[in-house]
Amino acid sequence: MSRSQLDTLIHMVNQIAINNAHYDDAAERIHAHLTKFWARSMKRQIVDYLQQDGSELSPLAREAIERLAQAQTEARSASA
After folding, report:
1. How far is CA 76 from the centre of its chain?
2. Number of C-alpha atoms within 13 angstroms, CB side, residue 59?
3. Rounded CA gap, 47 and 67, in Å?
4. CA distances (Å), origin 30, targets 1, 15, 67, 77
5. Which of left, alpha, beta for 54 (phi over 0: left; psi -120 to 50: alpha)?
6. Helix (H) or strand (E) holding 29
7. Burial (CB count within 10 angstroms: exposed 0-12, middle 13-18, buried 19+), residue 10
8. pLDDT digits (tens, 9 = 90+) for 26-36
9. Which domain holds residue 55?
10. What is the model's pTM?
11. Number of structural domains found in the chain
């Protein structure tokens, strides 16, 4: 993945976080959005970024991506 592609994903998830920040369940809403609308490859890339660095993610985006990573881990465990 190129750095520009990663920068785009980071920007997108941070914007989604800004747009949902006013909800009490913002992190869950962001997680649901990523699950529903992002391609599997996009989700994998943003989770990988969080696990390797994650420094450019807003705290709310980070929380949502942590939920996404947890859901991916649980899905892998369930199918094994």
Report:
1. 17
2. 1
3. 10
4. 23, 10, 10, 23
5. left
6. helix 26-37
7. buried
8. 999 999 999 99
9. 3-79
10. 0.91
11. 1
